[in-house]
Amino acid sequence: MTVLWKMKRSMAWNPFKLIFLCITFFIFATRQAKGADDLYRFCSEEDRSSDNSSYQTILRTLLSSLSFNATANANGFYNNTILATNSSDTVYGLFMCRGDLLPHACKDCVANATQTLSSDTNCSLSKSGLIWYNECMVRYSNLSFFSTVDRTPALYSWNVANISSNLSSFNSLLDNTMNETTHEAANSSKRYSAKQGNLSGIQTLYCLTQCTQDLSPQQCSDCLVEAISRIRTCCDGKQGGRVLFPSCNIRYELYPFYRVTDDAPQGLVPETTYAHTDSEYSEDPGYISHNCSNNNSDAAFRSNLGTLFSGLSSNATSNYGFQTHEGTAYGLFRCRIDIPSRLCQLCIQNSTDKITSECGLASTEAIIWYNHCWLRYSDRNFFSSTETSPRFVNLNFSNSNPIQSSVASELSNQLAKVATMTGNTDNKFQTDDSLRLNDKQTVFILGQCSSDLSSNSCIGCLNDVIGTAIPWSSLGSLGGRVLFPSCILRFELFQFYNLTPTTPTAPPPPPGESQRRTIILIVTSSILASGILFTFCYYLIRKNIRKHSRAILQENFGQESSTIESLQFNLPIIEAATSNFSQKNKIGKGGFGEVYKGILFDGRSIAVKRLSKNSKQGIEEFKNEVLLIAKLQHRNLVAFIGFCLDEQEKILIYEYVPNKSLDYFLFDTKQEKVLSWIERHKIIGGIARGILYLHEHSRLKVIHRDLKPSNVLLDENMNPKISDFGLARIIEIDQEEESTNRIIGTYGYMSPEYAMFGQFSEKSDVYSFGVMILEIISGKKNMNSHESHHVADGLLNFVWRNWRDETTLNALDPKLKENYSNVEVMRYIQIGLLCVQENLDARPTMATIVSYLSSHTIELPFPQEPSFFLNHRTNPIVAHESSSGQDANTSIPSSTNDISISEFYPR
Ligand SMILES: *[C@@H]1O[C@H](CO)[C@@H](O)[C@H](O)[C@H]1NC(C)=O
Ligand SMILES: *[C@@H]1O[C@H](CO)[C@@H](O)[C@H](O)[C@H]1NC(C)=O
Ligand SMILES: *[C@@H]1O[C@H](CO)[C@@H](O)[C@H](O)[C@H]1NC(C)=O
Ligand SMILES: *[C@@H]1O[C@H](CO)[C@@H](O)[C@H](O)[C@H]1NC(C)=O
Ligand SMILES: *[C@@H]1O[C@H](CO)[C@@H](O)[C@H](O)[C@H]1NC(C)=O
Ligand SMILES: *[C@@H]1O[C@H](CO)[C@@H](O)[C@H](O)[C@H]1NC(C)=O
Ligand SMILES: *[C@@H]1O[C@H](CO)[C@@H](O)[C@H](O)[C@H]1NC(C)=O
Ligand SMILES: *[C@@H]1O[C@H](CO)[C@@H](O)[C@H](O)[C@H]1NC(C)=O
């Protein structure tokens, strides 16, 4: 059990690492993360040889032959087999370089990869291993894998920046470009293709697909199609993403991460030229630009602004970044930290003077950028939000004569690296001069974010600069800058910053670390096979959260304590919004309090959850929980807006979703609208993605614990939004053990293990989701709470019997008369049945479910008879503990935004 021991030791402080270890444990593989610049490495721990064995010698021979053969002739790919006298010691291996790589770069990458594998004590003894870099991969095994398509282990990663333009047109461009690329890659001898799509005037979408060259065109195409189908799962709405399988991989970005044309770098790269003070490091504050809004401010605001400015100015003597507010006037400044503090002070003095003279205190919002600093104010609280406009862009465009494609590719990759490094420094500032283009030219880069941003928001902001502000296909010369309100990026061929800063900058974390922030690993099939281990890991994690919860919070939110300010609302504001909690604004009542509709002063419609007074939580704990909830942002989750804390009151504020909840459309007999199959299909998919986000992709693992149709709200476009996630710990109840002695949830949707023993996990959410699928398809309620004592023949049983007897379509909602596909309906029913299996290991994970839903080609396992635990619900633990008050009231259709529960785990 050495693996377990290692897990225990290393998980003490880093919950992310902990989840990671659990996942690698499932696939019996391990990775060492000691600052190497590989993306990931997997080396099987299941099957290992011993020190100085003949296998180890043969593996060394193989790795050195790969490295040796990474020559120009190899064309970026080479496979080899080293035969042994004992056939179980034979080793098969290959390397593959990214198709656009020049031979010397390929050779370097393969040399690093083989070197890393043979010096990694785990890998050098392992019977199979795999390592991925940006530019190449190396793989070996004692079993032949040539000419077969392998999809595990899989690695998914994405660009933190979100798509801000129209998502559906982005997605269709992505689909089409990927489709063309796939076709071309499968039919080319290198099994590689990269293509661009024109997204807008200056934005280009760059797509790359590649298979190992041992695959046939058909195999390559199959592998790539599967990889593309996973993009929606990992990377939907993101500016970049990749799916790496052992046999093929795909990637897309809004910057040229590969060489678009075949030109090799040659000659000097054209420089951008500037006026004197801007062409080197200068002590001049260097005014650049400003932007005032047209709105007129009132006298009170103007007076606050005066005070705000003097507060900012006076703080510039001791700080390089400061934010504060005076009444409703919010302001911040940020200085570059490579300058001495007297220059910061001078720059802020100059900015407040200039902004006053230019905007005349009449604007409600303004920003001014200098070479040394920038300063903003507004009448709204903009702290901690990433803002990308107004923007200042100073770059040379040339459609006819852009810089060489190889340079654009090197530059954009380096800028992306600097973006990540900047976000990971303590002071969100990073300079870099490691990119040498040739003997004469070095690129100097400076990235900085507003200090109120979290690491991820900073990385996202800078990536947004790289993806949306730099015209990669028509950049005319190397050099320029982009200034956003939340972050700035400059790159030049001369040194424009102070190389010996006066304040020490926090060292960037080793690259391996920084990469991992943006990468999450999902290994679907193997996880399925190891449900027991998963449960084990899961409990281990959970135990630890309690021990180290403070450290975890510190780690997750240390720098974001200011966030809590922006989320907090005063009671008078909430009272005004809800007309003093008037009865006519009341829209629901749940086990944990009442729900009101309200209109906030800025016009936003909100749902106000007034928690009943029996919560035992202290103020700090409450705030911490709220901060966790605020991190959960996904299009299929109801947006969290803030909270209010008063001596008597604990209130949570969510966006108000105008349409009714799903149960109304499914079960209310009075309503006229019948959901079409297309709508049901879309609702099921949306709910699945929302739960997957909670389970896998959010910063903290969240188990909802009360998924049911009344907790799924539908917006005007019938997009589902899950509500009431993340409330478990606020409402809780002393609870020490993994299993809770008080069952929170709703009968009919609770998994047997949860209802009977209080054990909850992702798989209990999967169960609830399965019940929902079957209800959505059949239009029948699983059980009515009034009948909960004598359910003899629930929905699950009904659907199961029809499925078993091959009359599956009888289970379909009779109101659905046409426009559905039999195959699709039957497939969805089968998925629903798989989710409600009694044995939790037999239930798929949400990641698997999402892949089942999005692909018609994945074969589904056969379900067993689901459990009808309600039949033997004599267990006294269950009998008296329903606490979601909602269901006593099923006749109120607008159960919008009730309260229920969910639980967080660190990842
Ligand atoms: C393997 O060989 C090295 C040097 O040949 C030796 O120092 C080491 O003790 C050996 N290890 C084992 C487990 O035999
Ligand atoms: C690969 O490298 C080995 C040496 O490790 C060499 O003997 C062999 O000829 C090379 N193969 C090719 C195809 O270049
Ligand atoms: C490389 O892969 C091909 C295709 O599967 C296979 O036929 C060939 O034997 C492999 N070459 C070596 C040296 O193993
Ligand atoms: C081959 O190696 C395996 C394990 O490495 C061993 O069990 C087996 O006895 C060996 N066979 C021969 C013929 O040496
Ligand atoms: C190879 O390793 C060296 C030293 O660790 C590093 O500087 C270089 O960038 C690496 N090259 C590649 C292609 O990863
Ligand atoms: C991709 O191409 C295949 C065949 O070339 C076609 O059937 C499929 O519909 C295309 N998909 C998209 C999204 O264009
Ligand atoms: C910094 O700003 C705050 C709030 O505006 C103000 O109260 C304080 O005096 C300033 N600090 C210094 C050192 O001037
Ligand atoms: C801004 O700074 C410069 C010094 O670089 C100074 O000459 C100028 O007077 C300052 N402007 C204002 C408005 O303070």
UniProtKB/TrEMBL annotation:
One of its GO terms (molecular function) is protein serine/threonine kinase activity. Residues 1-35 form the signal peptide. Residues 880-907 are annotated as: Disordered. InterPro entries: GNK2 (IPR002902), GNK2_sf (IPR038408), Kinase-like_dom_sf (IPR011009), Prot_kinase_dom (IPR000719), Protein_kinase_ATP_BS (IPR017441), Ser-Thr/Tyr_kinase_cat_dom (IPR001245), Ser/Thr_kinase_AS (IPR008271). Residues 581-859 form the Protein kinase domain. ATP binds at K609. It holds the Pfam family Stress-antifung. Keywords: ATP-binding, Glycoprotein, Kinase, Membrane, Nucleotide-binding, Receptor, Repeat, Serine/threonine-protein kinase, Signal, Transferase, Transmembrane, Transmembrane helix. It comes from the Eukaryota. Residues 881-900 have a biased composition (Polar residues). Residues 37-145, 151-257, 283-382, 388-496 form the Gnk2-homologous domain. GO terms for cellular component: plasma membrane. PROSITE patterns: GNK2, PROTEIN_KINASE_ATP, PROTEIN_KINASE_DOM, PROTEIN_KINASE_ST. GO terms for biological process: defense response to bacterium. It is found in: Membrane. It is a single-pass membrane protein. The chain crosses the membrane at residues 519-541. SUPFAM superfamilies: Protein kinase-like (PK-like) (SSF56112). This is Cysteine-rich receptor-like protein kinase. It comes from Phaseolus coccineus. The lineage of its organism: Eukaryota, Viridiplantae, Streptophyta, Embryophyta, Tracheophyta.
